[in-house]
Input
Amino acid sequence: MRDVSHLMKPMQDALRPAGVQADHIGSLWNLTLGLCTLVFILVLAACLVALWRAPRADAGSAPDLSSLAGPERRTWRVIKWATGAATVGLLVLLVGDVLTSRALARLPLQDAVNIELVGHQWWWEARYRDADPSREFSTANELHIPVGRPVIVTLRSGDVIHSLWIPNLQGKKDLIPGRTATLRLRADRAGTYRGQCAEFCGLEHAMMALLVEAEPNERYEAWAAQQRQPAAAPGDPVAQRGHDVFLARSCVMCHTIAGTSAGAKLGPDLTHLASRRTIASGMFPNNRGHLAGWIADPQSLKPGVNMPANALAPDDLQALLAYLETLK
Amino acid sequence: MTVRGDTDQRARGTWPDPTGPGLPPGAAQALERTWSDPPGIVGWFSAVNHKTIAKRFMVTTFIFFLLGGLLAVAIRLQLAQPNGKVLSADLYNQVFTMHGSTMMFLFAVPVMQAVAMYLVPLMIGARSVAFPRMNAFAYWIFTMGGIMLYVAFFLDIGPDAGWFAYVPLSGPQYSPGKRVDFWAQMITFTELAALMEAIVLITTILKMRAPGMTLNRMPLFVWTMLVTSFMVLFAMPAVMLASTALITDRLVGTHFYNPGEGGDALLWQHLFWFFGHPEVYLIFIPPLGFMSSIIATFSRRPVVGYPAMVLALIATAFLAFGLWVHHMFATNLPELGKTFFTAASLMIAIPTAVQIFCWIATLWTGRINLKTPLLFVLAFFAILLLGGLTGLMLASVSLDYQLHDTFFVVAHLHYVLLGGAVFPLFGAFYYWFPKFTGRMLSERLGRWNFWLFFIGFNVAFFPMHILGLQGMTRRIYTYPEEMGWGNLNLLSTIGAVGIALSVLLFVVNVLRSRRHGELASSDPWGAGTLEWSVASPPPMGNFPLVPVVHGRYPLWQQPVAPYHVTGLTNEYREVLVTSVADAKLDHRLWLPSSTPWPFVAAVATTILFIGSIFTPWAIVWASVPVAVAATVWFWPGRAITRRRVETEVQP
Output
């Protein structure tokens, strides 16, 4: 069984930035929070003091109409000063926002990792681009990125609008059909960060997460090199039988395993399924029990998902699982 | 020297003329007869009196508020624990869509128009609203649209694409079936009603004010409704266009929103938010009028800075149309353009700040009568202020990248809409309830109602700020236990139960006080505006004698001759039409009689709208009954025309 302890503490928190972009936004947040708290306290205090000092009256008390006779100069002066102060505060926020936007746009992009991310109902398809087409590879629902190197994520959608949000690294960006957006980020601290679809995208919007593993560059390169390899041929008879089950059943209608004849693109690429930590778009740990349940009856785990139930004989299922576990 | 109108005098119709002869014998009865709607079942459907329609309108919107509230409780129960099993994913999506749609389209906007339909004529010294039959028609259209939506929901075919119904999720490919069609057609119903109500209000306010009530003397609540109604005229067409294009995409295969065929998914968002952001102000501006009315009365002085208040309202209305893109910061629109919308979004805080400062100054320099209506209004300062400040955070493009579509936004919008609209609205109910019914609401229950609501609200919604920052996104029907969001969600659910209890207390208070409450005089709070010059509840014709206005607070200020208008007939529904700016006498107008035809026309229109969900041909065949009903509705009566010609006075 794989180690799933990281799932106990997924990092999905805008207040704990782990990258330069989230840091910029975090600084602006601190400034804004401080200023707004001050304003809140001042206005509420003024309101409470007004209540405390004003004499009490009842419905029969004669109204004070002196303000209809002449202007209330002293009161007006205070209101004007307060409005002026509020305007200055707003200008500070505006300048802070413009400076932050500029800082976000100025992320140095030398030596960037290029990832094309396509949103689907309800999973993420990732393709690592490269100038050399033979070095490109696909994966799903789990990104690995090198610490300290910029990452350019090109965002597209295959169906409805989704939104990519990995709060520890960067703000969110929508994936809109017919449009292409980019999100630039850089992880500066190693760790596993969780992201989630932020735009309501239908029935299982709640179950559309992804993991981002930020790791030192050499480990990232090793991972990428591994991902570029086609799947290894099954090494034992059980796995061989699983391989045959996969190719004979409806699995091949939707999934790809590079190195075999399975090349469909409707569902996640399974070439290195066993190297991923989760299944079902970040929802369940990738272990034999969950994988078996997922293959047999995905609708009970994630109702409405596009994957159909597969009535496999117990032996076939075990063989298929054994094969899938070899896809490291 | 100040004079408060005396109840006895008012009942006799001699106020504000202390020496006047009052009404001739039988005049009050004749007036009551003239302005009453006919009795019986048919009479019930024939009602056009603005107070009758407005009361039904208020009750209807309040029922929708209760339904929307129950849905909110269901949402909170589902989210109270990780991996909640109270609602299925499908039902949850229907429930949150219905909650948002109900609160926005069936409660928050129409309830303001409903209250205004009752109060505006009374505040401006008019005997009716303009176009009373259209007012009735608008009410029926609204009600039928709401009923259609709930019938669909109870049949498990309720909409499930969110109250914002983003395409392409709400389009034909990803939302097959009729669910979204019911939603889109509900938009048609409610926006049609809102547009008609806006026309009625604008005409009433600009042309039917009592002589002497110049624009400069209009109560601030009437100003807020004038501003709001103009905003409706410009905002609603955008969403009607958007939803109609959605309907044609879904029903007849157009491709407005289909990027595959040259359409654009973002077009919907632009059109929707060009309406959607001003809509927040449609909800928020009328309560500013409640605030000004209640604060003036309970601090025993006019509101500080009347011109500043009016200009702030108008500035808010203009700026409200320049902010819509701040709902779309996470899209790939040009960054420089987004900064413009940040600036505009920050700028709109200035007029709101001016108003808040003016109210605080009013409290500061006044003498305070701390009753339940004022308590609810004071909650505005804490809650709306916090919601406004989090709004400034969301206005910033960079911060919005993190906060957008998280529970932080859920917290923000509830702080704004409940603090800015629902709390003042409850204050307004406590304040005007004696005028509506002739009885006071219980003050003791009122305080329990307030404190339970105030505490429950903050317990329910404050934790959501933190949840959003901790990464909890919106519109998710469940979340894994490892995310660590369970405790704060449980706390939030406990707060929601507190809100539900407080609303229950309010309902108990209303039902008990309606029968057993303390009797209210015409002016139980010692207020200064005209609605308090007539009996509680007001006679059917509102003013036995139409007043002449000489100031902003006629009941507080010394009466000046001329006191009232004479020469209007009591036998027909005759009203005065006055000039737009100065309210100078223009001419007399006879308003139409009560009739069931607006109701029949509304039924025919409902058949057309619902039929067109199922077949485009319904627009052809169902327009025949609509045309017939409308023709009968407008058919002039022989007798009344002859009488009108006979009484004509040539200049």
Observations:
- Chain B touches chain A through 96 residues (CB under 8 Å).
- Confidence is low (pLDDT under 50) at residues 1-5 of chain B.
- The CA atoms of residues 215 and 574 of chain B lie 23 Å apart.
